[in-house]
Amino acid sequence: MSQKLRILCIHGYRQSDKTFREKTGGLRKVLKSLADFEFIRAPHILENEEESYSWFYSNPATHNIKTYNCLDSSTEDPGFDESLKFLLNHISDNGPYDGLMGFSQGACMISMLCSMKKTNPILNDIKL
To answer: Which of the two residues, 76 and 95, has the higher pLDDT score?
Structure first.
């Protein structure tokens, strides 16, 4: 049998590595002979919410409460740069990965990583 695929899993807004892992239990069970799934938690914790994290926010950094709403029109993306560095460091330290799987805001982060693949050597080992 060949080596299993390594998949990095990136959760959505108001989720965590733990909740995303729980929600993908059926998929992981079906693919357990083919792939190992590694779940990562976003660096931004949402205040007053248990096990809720964010990769970035849609309201300006000057607001007291940081939130994300996909319908917000914003010229700022507070938290995005920090999250991008966090993901790139994780991939560099723990990779290589054969693929990425994301949900909602996590899928947005993956699309940004894919757009950077040609210009960032850390991402060269991810097979997309």
So the answer is: 95
